[in-house]
Amino acid sequence: MALRVAAYCRVSTEQDDQLNSLANQKRYFDEYIRRQPGWQLVEVYADEGLSGTSSKNRPAFQKMIAAAKRGEIDLILTKEVSRFARNTIDTLAHTRDLRKLGVGVIFINDNIDTRQNDGEFRLTIMASVAQEESRKTSERVKWGQKRSMENGVVFGCNNMYGYDLQNGRLRIRPDQAEVVRLIYHKFLHEGKGTHVIARELYEAGIAAPKAKDKPWSAVMIYRILKNEKYCGDLLQKKSYTPNYLDHKKILNHGAEEQVYLRAHHEGIISHDLFERTQQELKRRAPSAAQAARYSNRYWCSGKIRCGSCGERFMPRRRTRSSGFVYQYWVCHAKGHFGRKKLDTQGRAVGCSMRSIHHQTICACMEYVIRKLPIDVDALIREVLALLEREKPQTHEIEQLQARQQRCMQKKDTVLDAYFEQTISKEELERLRSRYDIELAQLGKRLSVLASQQTAAQRTNGSADEVRCFLQRQAFCAESVFGELLERFTVYEDSVTIKLNGISAVFRIGYTTSGQMEHYQTNILSCDMIDL
Known about the structure:
Rossmann fold; 3 domains
């Protein structure tokens, strides 16, 4: 029986000379395999313009491994270890997995055959050398990029609104520059928010960045207002790659030195306008404590979807003249563009899906949870054990309160230092922001401990009281709803609920009656639909 042989080759750039080299490699392997008696060519797998430090993003490599697992390959040829992978772990993992399948790998230039007894030992050495060479290459590239950045060369894609990036230089696009100036004017002089500006630009038929068929968003506006390039300055290394093996970029919060060049290129707006905009953004921004409270305000945020257009639902609050607060949720598309219609450009915008009362969402969740086959007795035992195990100690609360007090004192000290001109305004803002975040975290932890104390006092270790507490409050608590809910979808005549860990979906039909404090939700039907 013929030995089924495949080959793998790769080049890391898409330059012409590299692609020619790849074509030569493919031709070489094809001829080499056909010349061997008893060998049958399966396929020559080739990846173009892809790094070897990780195998996850190489489609041809993954296709070859899949074919080997299906039993279609007996032997794999590759030129050298660095072509196969520059990651020691990847190299050894794949060759070991292939060996378990009875598939050998031959590295021709390195004279390594994983089918031989010393193959893995020699492969480990060569793979380590290849990985070290990749690390050195990464450092050389970073060093070269840093020097180029200091000389004013702009790195990144040509996707910045208002500018064209050509040969590392920024050139103004007059048509888009006018829109940028309009955005700054609306924000600073007209006092409009990012959501309002986005809606007005869309309604005016102005194409959004990147996706021309997609409306402007508040995030797009915010990024334009925060980008220093619009006043002619340049900040580079806003993100960096901490691990040269996986190439994942993360935001640079001081881990690597950034490069800031003032008056680097022609600005669309003045420095003064940009600085006043940054001050206004800070003034309008919520404090760290407020942001923390807002992010935890709604247990179902991001989980309620429109059954018509698929958009998420947004919370809305309305206060009646009597003081009663009416809370409901509305489709994002409807909230921004109104009922479904065609705009002046002939595009479909908005949504006609009905809104839904927050009490109705809670009523549907409570109904579904009570329908679940929950072993209340087993749950009681777990709750009693948990309360005993996590019963908050008085000394822990006192320690947290002491830390809270020290943090507040530090904030006062920082403010004094600013008035004494021993620290800059930027340092003041940075430190105050850090202390605000710490205070918010301490407050949240103290709140949890207080809740645990309350629960412990209510139950007092009694199984009957735990049962009463669970049925009266825990099963109906919105915090429990938030943990269980995966997706809540609103339709014209019903809603569907998908819970975490349950493959089925609950479809609920209901009616409502009454107003304000007399508002009620009446469940008519609840069907379980298997996915």
